[in-house]
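Reviewers of the previous submission asked for a worked example of the structure-prediction workflow described in the proposal, so we include one complete record here. The input consisted solely of the amino acid sequence. No template or homolog information was supplied to the procedure at any stage.
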Amino acid sequence: MQRKLWTSPAEEEHGDVHVAVVGPNEVVRAAMKWQVLLANYAACGLLRAVAGLVLSGTVNAADLSLANILLLPSVAAVVIGGTSIFGGSGSYSGTIVGALILTVLNSVLTLLDVPDAVKQILYGAIIVVLAAAYTRVLGHE
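From that input alone, the workflow returned the following structure tokens.
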């Protein structure tokens, strides 16, 4: 049984309609593009709020810059996983592998008692080096 959540506009007759497919040829529901975008933004907002509550509950403090230290490692994990920083293709499995590699690196740096500032510089250097490598391999300008 074929399970497809959303088809791409190239697979449809109309480019502004997304179609959910459950069976081989069963069309369950069609939704306009703006409805899908609205649902995506609402889901992202809800998940960000939950993540903020979990983070502030873990630290027992609330501050706007509480998660700033987590931004660069998360981007580095995605880039290490093989997703191009210039847009394009990537995979969930690559991102998970990148996160695992970065977790091991973070553990080693913690055991070596490296300051957080040096860790941030290292994460930034990883992003720059891998972006340069992707540029050379993929031929982006």
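The chain has two domains: 1-61, 67-138. We consider this example representative of the routine output the project will generate in years two and three.
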